[in-house]
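Lab notebook: predicted structure, single chain.

Context: the supervisor wants predicted structures on file for every construct in the current expression panel, including those that have not yet been purified. This is the next one on the list. No modifications to the sequence; it matches the entry in the shared construct table.
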Amino acid sequence: MLQFIKDLPDHVVGIRAIGEVDKEDYQKVLIPRMEELAERQGKINYLLVLETDVTNFSALAWWQDFRLGLKHFSQWKKVAIVTDQKGVQWITDTASHFIPGESRGYALSELDEAIKWVSEDEEHLEHADISVNDLKAQNAQRSSNKNQGPAGENL
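Prediction complete. Output recorded below exactly as produced.
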């Protein structure tokens, strides 16, 4: 089942996946919201909280996902996938090399961080001020992921 996540900024579509996911979930929940956002904003910021195994997506659900991705290929701005499935996190991080925009994988325990990242609007942050503490925190975050493999293991 797909559930729309309320209370996100207007430029973000948030979806929670639990249990079995089928074609109708895409058609009733995800696709209408993606279409509306793409029409209104021109770019897509997407948060997926994946609380079910990817094997619980039907073949027709995957087909809907593939079609949606291709249809809006040039419009992806940010994609954050939040899951404890390490392989999905790794693929999400790697996808930035193959699709326009950025994509990042997060653990379920990092949901707040994922929401913050996918919600940031760089166009308005371009000339924003930053505190020394925020700058240090951002640099610490970037350096904390160095020397880690796709499953989070130390290299």
